[in-house]
User: Fold this.
Amino acid sequence: MGADEWDSEVVSFVSRERLRSKQNYYRIVSNTIIDMTFSDLVEEVRQRPVSEKREIEHLLRRDLIEERRKEMFENHVRAVEEVRTGKRVPTSNVAEFMRRLDAQ
Assistant:
């Protein structure tokens, strides 16, 4: 396995772990993972060239969009299940919908 492959696997692993903990950030230097604070991470990004900052911006926007899509899909699945089990009853009547909201 080449260094680039190793780096991408570690970055993928580190990203998953960071998402779980939401506390630790890492930097890979010569195939070594270095623990960073959030302020260290921000400072590291600020020191990058504009082209890399734009790439980071693009990646973050894409990740946020994907997270929102996932959240919307999970809400949809939950709503379908609630309708299926009778916990929720679908309606296209706005007045009926508002009455049901007030009753909860």
Summary: The radius of gyration is 22 Å. Confidence is low (pLDDT under 50) at residues 1-7. Helices lie at 3-21, 38-46, 50-85, 94-103.
